[in-house]
Amino acid sequence: DGAQRRKSDHIEVVRAGHAASACDPGFDAVRLVHCALPELALDEVDLSTRLLGKPLAAPLLISAMTGGPARAERINIHLAEAAQELGIAFAIGSQRIALERGGAAGLGAELRRRAPDVLLFANLGAAQFVRGYGPEEARRAVEMVGADALVIHLNPLQEAIQPEGDRDWRGVLDALGVLAAALAVPVVVKEVGFGLSPAVARALVARGIAALDVAGAGGTNWALAEGARGEGRTRAVAAAFADWGVPTAIAIRLVRAACPTVPVIASGGVRHGVDVAKAIRLGADLAGQAAAVLPAAMESTAAVVEHFTILRDQLKVACFATGARDLEALRRVPLLDEA
Amino acid sequence: DGAQRRKSDHIEVVRAGHAASACDPGFDAVRLVHCALPELALDEVDLSTRLLGKPLAAPLLISAMTGGPARAERINIHLAEAAQELGIAFAIGSQRIALERGGAAGLGAELRRRAPDVLLFANLGAAQFVRGYGPEEARRAVEMVGADALVIHLNPLQEAIQPEGDRDWRGVLDALGVLAAALAVPVVVKEVGFGLSPAVARALVARGIAALDVAGAGGTNWALAEGARGEGRTRAVAAAFADWGVPTAIAIRLVRAACPTVPVIASGGVRHGVDVAKAIRLGADLAGQAAAVLPAAMESTAAVVEHFTILRDQLKVACFATGARDLEALRRVPLLDEA
Amino acid sequence: DGAQRRKSDHIEVVRAGHAASACDPGFDAVRLVHCALPELALDEVDLSTRLLGKPLAAPLLISAMTGGPARAERINIHLAEAAQELGIAFAIGSQRIALERGGAAGLGAELRRRAPDVLLFANLGAAQFVRGYGPEEARRAVEMVGADALVIHLNPLQEAIQPEGDRDWRGVLDALGVLAAALAVPVVVKEVGFGLSPAVARALVARGIAALDVAGAGGTNWALAEGARGEGRTRAVAAAFADWGVPTAIAIRLVRAACPTVPVIASGGVRHGVDVAKAIRLGADLAGQAAAVLPAAMESTAAVVEHFTILRDQLKVACFATGARDLEALRRVPLLDEA
Amino acid sequence: DGAQRRKSDHIEVVRAGHAASACDPGFDAVRLVHCALPELALDEVDLSTRLLGKPLAAPLLISAMTGGPARAERINIHLAEAAQELGIAFAIGSQRIALERGGAAGLGAELRRRAPDVLLFANLGAAQFVRGYGPEEARRAVEMVGADALVIHLNPLQEAIQPEGDRDWRGVLDALGVLAAALAVPVVVKEVGFGLSPAVARALVARGIAALDVAGAGGTNWALAEGARGEGRTRAVAAAFADWGVPTAIAIRLVRAACPTVPVIASGGVRHGVDVAKAIRLGADLAGQAAAVLPAAMESTAAVVEHFTILRDQLKVACFATGARDLEALRRVPLLDEA
Lengths: 339, 339, 339, 339
Ligand SMILES: Cc1cc2nc3c(=O)[nH]c(=O)nc-3n(C[C@H](O)[C@H](O)[C@H](O)COP(=O)(O)O)c2cc1C
Ligand SMILES: Cc1cc2nc3c(=O)[nH]c(=O)nc-3n(C[C@H](O)[C@H](O)[C@H](O)COP(=O)(O)O)c2cc1C
Ligand SMILES: Cc1cc2nc3c(=O)[nH]c(=O)nc-3n(C[C@H](O)[C@H](O)[C@H](O)COP(=O)(O)O)c2cc1C
Ligand SMILES: Cc1cc2nc3c(=O)[nH]c(=O)nc-3n(C[C@H](O)[C@H](O)[C@H](O)COP(=O)(O)O)c2cc1C
What we know:
The structure is a homotetramer of 339-residue chains.
Chain A: H1 2-15, E1 49-51, E2 54-56, E3 60-65, H2 69-86, E4 89-92, H3 96-101, H4 109-114, E5 120-125, H5 135-145, E6 149-153, H6 156-161, H7 172-182, E7 187-190, H8 198-206, E8 211-213, H9 222-229, H10 232-239, H11 248-258, E9 264-266, H12 273-281, E10 286-289, H13 294-299, H14 301-320, H15 327-330
Parallel strand pairs in A: 3-4, 3-10, 4-5, 5-6, 6-7, 7-8, 8-9, 9-10
Antiparallel strand pairs in A: 1-2
The complex binds flavin mononucleotide (4 copies).
Residues 10-11, 14, 63-66, 93-94, 123, 151, 153, 190, 192-193, 215, 219-220, 267-270, 289-292, 294 of chain A line the site of one flavin mononucleotide.
């Protein structure tokens, strides 16, 4: 049906490159100072961290994606198994269709069986919570996969472009506050590629949101993605937003400055482990990737493991080459501008 | 004859892209901060405004264009009907030929019948007012179409390039002051694509000019347009001015700062509704487009409606995605540089 | 012979584009503020000026060039006749060959007969004055063409690249001081495309030099020109200097600031009359062109007249479009950065 | 065997351009002010200098390179003979294979016989000194070629990328301090193309290191070089480091500011003698080149002589064209930014 077709279209559109932001995520302008004398063993570099009380082998997140039910099942199993194998976090895509259809669409208990130890995020859209959803639906989403936390995505621009989109966002902030208070698990809020601003970040933290994912501009652009799926006018309206949003590297700095103590996830145009290192240096706790993982996700668990092994190794080498034994040290590495 | 042929040439030259400025209008460097939690319904976004006492459904202006009489009639009817349908402002092209020939050249009372409710601007060139025109001719131009206001265009560089141009601009400022005092309707002054400077803006406002259209550099370049129509030397002289003028985004800031209370229209290289949003954020009250509308204008009323519907929808989505319920709120949206 | 062959080679090399600097002359970054209400008649714009006591119809100079004797004669006659017709200044190329051979190489009294009224500059290289030349040779060069002033060119980098070049520049400054004191006509000093620095400008003025031509980087590059004529090693050495020198627009500012009262000529990569207007705004009294005139110079007097008529008209229009009635006013026109 | 094959691979990879950094070495942004009146004879320009007590005809270093033994012998003999002929410094490539195999791999006493007078640097990797090497091995390396000093290279990022690399860098700083105290000859420390930072430079000088070679980013990139030799994952990990490191021109400034009195060698993306002049102006004592010399090094002694003759002549002309009689004067030449 419509909703499933849409999800399936998204995958095609992203893979074809039609959803690539015209905006620079901003990592190239950030230069870490090389350390020629690390006084470290590479093997000693410790990428482990904790988020929301759960240990992670590396500060990496497989960002939320989902496909049409048929494909989604395979994709999600590949991602879950890889997350388990690597000890990194995994956010499933929106569970709305699964919630509403009853069928789990690849998002059922099987997923948790494949990834018993990972920090697993359930996922729902914020707009739903002023459209009938409440703590009850959120609890069902969390339980469906045995998630450790619930991610709520904010995608107002995507919804505004989409002709059938949810375009009434009044009361969303309050609803998220209610949700945060009512749920046993922490609630994380994210954008989907246009970035959280400092004002929004502050408002969310004030309502009890436990962590933020800036999901900034420079990677997947959901206005273009909806435009590419749409007919003439939708596509034309969307085109004006090709360069829209807060670039990821800037969003990290701003959100970190606005909310000094809340965990911050960096996503949106993260290309490799050197970008991850920069994101962490700028204040992020974890970095996530979505579109860049999609080809591997469609292939196999092994392909996803290989993809994130490379990212993790790049991050490890970046720590080594800046003389940082762990992520705490990486946060104090000098930037070239400040040297 | 010559004057009509010239107008017709302009259309060809603009459509062929020979009149495109080499200057960047400056909108890309202005970044609006995305708001991931708008707390708004898209439908609630109110683009309505008033200019010179008349209501507008959106802060949009179909900028002055005109063709050779034969084509002008069709073009102007398409534009008038679209403006009426959308509730936006419409500025007709220069009425000089019509005034001097008696024939209305598509600029007669019929136009107002097609667009009974729109904010309609009559149009004459400033240089005429030191060359025999006075309040009487201005009144006739206004009455010819039942205009709400008179736009006077300043195009000294275009006239200087054009071998047969009006090259004596002494006394124009005084003549515009006389006109403003004598006319029952407000007088608006605009450039045609090289921008109003703060000094000129201040001088005009001091003489009683009611509103300004910066018509800055970055869109249509009338030196190149005349060059493309001319023979070798004219073309060669014009080529040096390809990058001339005050870029639109800079002109808006400067004119707004120089004249804090006068209505300011932004035109010159406005590409889409996100540029409109930026123009308004920088201080404009309305944004206008000319060359980009030309293809639709030559086609049909429906094409023009579609063109501006897209612009209006882009502007509406830009308001929504910055959390701005109306244009007043849009003016207070943070810029990324200031965040 | 060798010297004549070299001069002839230079023309081929320049025309083929092998001597084009990789450096930006810097004019694009200078933006004159457009004036939409000039309160002027274009015909009223007065480009006339005086330099070294002689009137000029426009602040333009045909910069020093010369060819092999055979061609030089035609070239110089075209340039001289055009300068006379337009009332602009004319600098002949180096007279060294003519001085040393006796033959005038197109640089004899005939030239002055063709251009009886122009500000005419004789030309010799500075290095000659520590290699046997003195006031006597300078006087002969001036008298050969009945020049109003003598231009001495400083081209140490060109000489250093050229295997047979004059590479001993010790004592040149003193020799120029002696020359300035001994000669009845003013002595002007110029570079040939790498720019005068403030320190050199100050030293020259302190020795009685009457005017300076910055001849900055961004147009003809004489290291590349000699490289293109030379064999492998010369060419390789020269290539490192493709981007060398003080860009013309910067040289004008710096020299004007260092020497507030001395006449300054701007040359080096001046493309058209808008660049001339910018040069004057930055502090120059005259602007000169060499390589860009070469094709017209080889063709006919009429071609040179047409070339400079276009430049003059561009400058006139630039004055009009900034509201500047004359060059004094042009010097006070606002720059966009300062607006 | 493996180590020799690796060295040989490096040569292919560098020559094929696969190891070229994506980073700008930063020399283009540094502009020396041209001096149109040098008051010098080109022949008078004195490029001679001393380093570590030994005289040099020019401040040039043939940076450390080495090939597989078979080729290395020819390469090193060409380089040594050229260094001798030109009076410049020569650093041989790593002597580890030679030390461990007994065979000199082209790095034996023959080398010194070909270059009796040059400032000759022995070369070992820093990581070896926490892996069994000590002053004894260092002394053997120095004696093997009769070196004047020992260069220790720091290449942690290269080792980290290389699957078989030395990835434990703990204790290296202390080991270098021990070495500096124990050895009769001075110890120089260098990077290999990612730059020394001010902190590392200071630490090394505090341990008695006699001179530093910044070997900054912008030339050969050893992560890419190892990536190009490796299989899929190695190559993928390396790719993230294409733009890594402190750009050479910035490294020179920072290291010079951090260590005002220690001799500093500049290498990494030095293209020609004008870059050498800029490096010296920024604070370097010598400038070195590796990859750019490789083609000549593989050809003949004459080709290497020709290569460095061009560099030296460019430097000499750059001194002349800035009015600098010697390197001391070159260090005081104004930069355009400061003029
Ligand atoms: C195919 C695809 C599907 C996605 N679906 C969801 C989703 O259901 N829920 C969500 O919160 N984000 C979703 N996202 C957004 C990503 O989680 C992420 O925030 C965004 O794409 C930016 O990261 P990127 O530039 O690495 O792709 C999706 C992204 C992709 C590429
Ligand atoms: C074909 C054409 C004809 C125009 N004719 C007039 C005119 O008669 N009067 C006038 O004030 N402006 C005229 N303009 C200028 C526009 O109103 C506008 O100021 C300018 O083109 C900059 O906007 P743009 O970059 O969107 O084209 C004309 C523009 C075009 C493209
Ligand atoms: C073909 C040619 C010959 C030149 N010969 C001389 C010369 O004899 N004496 C001199 O002072 N300058 C000479 N110049 C330099 C020019 O006068 C001028 O300073 C320089 O070319 C920069 O101007 P441009 O960029 O417009 O070419 C010559 C230039 C050219 C193109
Ligand atoms: C083929 C090749 C082999 C090299 N081998 C060594 C080496 O054995 N020891 C060393 O200290 N540096 C070595 N280097 C690094 C250079 O000495 C130099 O620091 C680096 O390449 C940056 O200079 P470049 O950009 O001019 O190549 C080598 C460089 C090249 C190109």
